[in-house]
Amino acid sequence: MKSLVPSNIRPPFARYAHGVEIPAGWRIVQTSGQLGITAEDDIPEDAFDQAVICFENIRAILKEAGMTPGDVAHISAYVTDRAHMAGYMQARDQFKADVERLPSSTLLIVSGFTRPEFKVEVEVLAAAP
């Protein structure tokens, strides 16, 4: 994959690329949105802790496909309040800490999820040869 960061537009606001090119013939994995809930049905109060769970779940899904966080082409994330953006971004940056090529990224503020205690939802698009 190739990160696309044209020099004639404003640089990204954080650690992401404006676009990612996926080569022809690569396998693609699209995850469902992952919520901050553990296998034991625990939901932390804090947005950061919920986002960490989202990314742990994504890591497990990628592993099932023989992929790693380095194979993520795009991250889409949703938070229920601007106050949750920093916690989400901290968890996202931890997920990508060892990743050399940065994915593209979208972050939206939404009115809510299926249960009011959820603050963060994350999905990814990944690709590998």
From TrEMBL:
Gene3D superfamilies: RutC-like. Its EC number is 3.5.-.-. Keywords: Hydrolase. One of its GO terms (molecular function) is hydrolase activity. It holds the Pfam family Ribonuc_L-PSP. PANTHER family: BLR7761 PROTEIN (PTHR43857), YJGH FAMILY PROTEIN (PTHR43857:SF1). This is RidA family protein. It comes from Cognatishimia coralii.
